[in-house]
Amino acid sequence: MSQIFLDTGKVIPVTVIGKISEDLTADMENKPVYIVGISKGKGFAGGMKRWHFSGGPATGGQSTKPRAPGSIGSQTPGRVRKGKKMAGRLGGDRVTIKGLKIVRVMPDQKQLMVSGPVPGARNSKITIELK
After folding, report:
1. Could you tell me the sign of the dihedral formed by the alpha carbons of 114, 1, 123, 25, in that order?
2. Which of 1, 7, 26, 86 places its Cα 20 to 30 Å from the Cα of 52?
3. Distance CA 101, CA 104 (A)
4. Domains, in order of start, for the chain
5. How far apart are CA 112 and CA 115, in angstroms?
């Protein structure tokens, strides 16, 4: 990410998107867009990182499980229900960011500047949908 300073002194955080395959025109500036991409994968993560669980108490007899998720349910139905928040793979999901605008178009370099963040790692593929 980078930033642009307007004539009024306002700072706009932007993301530079390069290698645009379509024809770019200056008419696209200030148009709202949706950006769709694949979020960064973080591998196998525990409950605290994946779901923001609070963990166990820091004192009062706590010994070896300060980051454990705790109880996962009652005796009935005697199984783990679908969708239970537990440890597992984090990231690598399709993410849509709404409410972004095209701040600047650079057709000679085939680049766009979009206000705000864009999902995914550097040089990953994204889809830009004009709203």
Report:
1. positive
2. 1
3. 9
4. 2-40+91-130 (2.40.30.10)
5. 10
Q: Report the DSSP pairing between strands 43-45 and 32-38.
A: unpaired
CA pair distance 79, 76, nearest whole angstrom:
8
For 25-68, how does the pLDDT look when each residue is reduced to its tens digit (9 = 90+)? 888 899 999 999 999 999 999 999 999 999 888 888 877 888 99
Q: SS3 helix, strand, coil % of the chain, rounded to 5? A: 5, 35, 60
Identify residue 71 by its one-letter amino acid code: S
Contact 114, 103 (CB under 8 A): yes
Beta bridge partners of 102: 114
- Copy the structure tokens of residue 37: 């991409």
Secondary structure tally for the chain: helices H, strands E: 1, 8
Residue 14 CA to residue 118 CA, distance in Å, equals 9
